[in-house]
Amino acid sequence: MGALGRLILGRPTREFAPRARPVIYRIRHALPLLAPDALSSVAYAPDEILLTLAAGGVVALTLSPWVGLAIAAVMAVVVTSYRQTVKEYPEGGGDYTVAKENLGLRAGGLVGGAAMVDSLLTVAVSVSCGAQYFGAIVPALEDHAKVVAVALVALITLMALWGIKALDQTVIYAVYLFLGALVLLGVAGGIGHLNSTLGKSPAAAFEVVPTAPYAAGLTTLGAAFLLVRAFSSGAVALTGVQTISTGVASFREPKPRNAARSLTFLGIMCGGLLIGILLLAQRVGAVFVANPTTELAYPSGQLVGPEYHQEPILAQIAAAVFHDSWPVFIIVTALVGFLLVLAATTAFRWVPALMSMLAQDEFLPKQFSRRADRRVAAHGIITLGIGSAALIWLMNASVTRLIQLYIVGVFLSFTISQLGMLKHWNGKLPLAKTAPERRRIRSSRAVNALGLALTAIALVIVVVTKFIYGAWISLGLVGAAFWVMLAIRRHYRRVADELKLPREGREALGLPSRVHAIVLVSAMNRATARAVAYARASNPDTLEALTVAVDMARVWDLRRGWVRADLPVTLRVLDSPGREITRPLIDHIADLRTRAPRDVVILYIPEKVVRHWWERFLHNRSAARLTSKLRHIPGVVVASVPWQLDQPPDPKSN
Predict the structure, then answer these.
(1) 532 touches 567 (CB < 8 A)
(2) In 10 A of CB 13, how many CB atoms?
(3) CA 480/CA 474 separation, integer angstroms
(4) String of DSSP letters for 176-190
(5) What is the DSSP code (8-state) at residue 373?
(6) Element of type H or E holding 302
(7) Cα separation of 363 and 482, whole Å?
(8) Which residues lie below 8 Å from residue 371, measured CB to CB, with a gap of 6+?
(9) Is residue 535 scored above 80 in pLDDT?
(10) Does pLDDT of 265 surpass 70?
(11) What are the extents of the domains in the chain?
């Protein structure tokens, strides 16, 4: 690895260090490590619910707690369904393992592709939203949210590549501080509401005007459609609850029970926080409308009044609750932004592991299954970092635009996973020997059947209501990822079939009839002499030196030098009317292969090895081009004979 790579990745771990055991945590540590993704989605889900309802005006905004309640109900079913998964798959693996083992490799590949696309969006949305909260504290950062978000992704990527152990402790403390801040916000807001001392959001002074088609009034059908759209927008709150099923191995024994308990705790926290935030937002008059500068034509309400600097919902609530205590507002808002940024570390924790499993099943290049010298899945980490940073830059760090691409992959994974669990129970039921065991299996199957129905309905709602606003891009990305993964697997299968030894194995192990050795010569020097010596040491049947007559003056100098060196090898000059080097050599070697198909041709190429990377550009690269073309000719072996520059003379090379 070069100096740049070492600067990025840091010093390697010991080469023969013993294999590190997986870190095992108690619930109080494992839960916060796996919870940031789900908790962060609760932080920006209220914004999306209120953004959608704002299109119907003030009346529609009063329905936000009911939307939150519907999402919490679906979350309860999803959490109960995934409790079955963690109990049946205590080794972890999540949706990919469930789909692969019950529905086949193709279904697993589809889930894997959806999970990878959604992980890119998870990082992009979380970090972009975190940058918004930092902009609420320091307004000067608001106009540079894109740069701030990309810089944060780069920092998280480097920390993941370095494998910093202290990051785990930071995440644990940040989660507990975040929960403490929201509990403080809720208690203070409740007390203020009871005492009539609760402040108002700056947006409460403005009127939310409904836009078409709701400007004429909110009909029953229109209200129903608006609620469905608000549900599909707020359903981002469900993202991340499945993370625990992928990290069951991180819990202490009994792993399944501890993981199931943690999943229940996480569902209760997320559902309670979502409803509480929406209720507080209604009490303080917090609203969220589409940014008029966005390029996304997303229907939303409009604020009537002077220009208003819009902040995220939690920042508006904090400003209203702590209107007389500015330092507390800063602390609460900073903790929310900090957790949103740290939520991206969850994706950097489990997505490279998913990519490693996909690579082991030949859905991704095999490099993704290997760990770098820092014992981290560097290829997966770098891919995730670059992809999410590119999304942030292309979407201008706009959470409103990014969120439209979001959640499709999550619900697709939910649905396929629940279908896999349903087939899992159908396979176990005939094997049950006792009545209690059969009742347990039927009960578990009913839970997963309900989960399948709800997640499938939610998937349809999300696709239909968000399709024209960006969901089609997400579907296209998932489809493209799945197609590429299938192509990679077909390639590996084709290579394996072609390289498979025949039953007797003698055909592949048989010796060639003859070996023709050729030394490529461009000048008479020590590197050429070493290549000739190596070729002679291999004891071929025939040996010749070849040069191409591009410049006749250089050819005559080469002939004179060859005679003075007194090398026991014939120098042959190939004519090149077009002054091209590679074509005459390829034609000559192809002619040898045509005349003797069972013979092997070995081409020895002297290569100058430079000490510095920039020196490579100072030497001719024709040898590399020649090597790449000769690789496609059967029965041809290209041997590079390196000469390390700046080394002492080697008398044996003469």
Answers:
(1) yes
(2) 15
(3) 10
(4) HHHHHHHHHHHHHHH
(5) T
(6) strand 302-304
(7) 9
(8) 377, 378
(9) yes
(10) yes
(11) 25-303+313-491, 512-653
What tens digit of pLDDT does each residue of 487-523 get? 999 998 888 887 776 665 555 556 677 889 999 888 8
Alpha helices in 429-551 (DSSP H): 435-466, 471-499, 506-509, 526-537
Amino acid at the residue 313: I
Architecture, CATH, for domain 25-303+313-491: Up-down Bundle (1.20)
Spatial contact of 172 and 29, defined as CB atoms under 8 Å apart? yes
CATH architecture of 512-653: 3-Layer(aba) Sandwich (3.40)
Per-residue confidence (pLDDT) for residue 9, from 0 to 100? 54
Confidence of residue 430 (pLDDT cuts 50, 70, 90): confident
Output phi, psi for 646, to 5 deg: 60, 35
R_g of the chain computed on alpha carbons: 32
Q: How far is CA 513 from CA 419, 509, 599, in A?
A: 58, 13, 5
- pTM for the full model? 0.76
Question: Could you tell me the CA-to-CA distances from 332 to 46, 182, 186, 199, 269 in Å, in that order?
Answer: 17, 8, 12, 16, 18
CA distances from 57 to 50, 62, 203, 400, 476 (A): 10, 9, 14, 19, 33
Give the separation between CA 583 and CA 575, rounded to whole angstroms: 10
Write down the pLDDT at residue 483: 93
d(CA 167, CA 159): 8
3-class secondary structure, 546: strand
C-beta separation of 530 from 650 below 8 A: yes
Q: Is the alpha carbon torsion for 409, 414, 419, 423 positive or negative?
A: positive
Give the total residue count for the chain.
Answer: 654
Residue whose C-alpha is closest to residue 402's, from 628, 38, 46, 122:
122
Q: What is the pLDDT of residues 321-344, one digit of tens each?
A: 888 778 888 888 888 888 888 888
pLDDT at 569 over 50: yes
Contacts of 448 (CB under 8 A, 6+ apart): 81, 84, 418, 421, 422, 425
Tell how far CA 498 is from the center of its chain: 32
Other residues' Cβ atoms within 10 Å of the Cβ of residue 319? 22
Q: How far is CA 379 from the centre of its chain?
A: 10
pLDDT digit string, tens, across residues 371-427: 654 445 677 888 888 989 998 998 888 887 787 777 788 888 888 988 999 998 888
What is the distance between the alpha carbons of residues 366 and 651, in angstroms, rounded to a whole number? 43
- Best CA proximity match to 402, nearest among 123, 652, 163: 123
Q: Which two tokens stand for residue 306?
A: 């002077």
Residue 396 token pair: 């201008």
Residue 8 — very low, low, confident or very high, per pLDDT cuts 50/70/90?
A: low
Report the first-to-last Cα separation within the chain, whole angstroms. 33
Sheet with 600-609, side-by-side order of all strands: 570-575, 542-549, 515-520, 600-609, 636-644
Distance CA 254, CA 239 (A): 26
Q: Which is it for strands 600-609 and 636-644: parallel, antiparallel or unpaired?
A: parallel
344-379 pLDDT, tens digit per residue, is: 888 887 787 788 888 888 888 888 876 654 445 677
Beta bridge partners of 25: 251
- Asked if the domains at 25-303+313-491 and 512-653 fall in one CATH topology, the answer is no
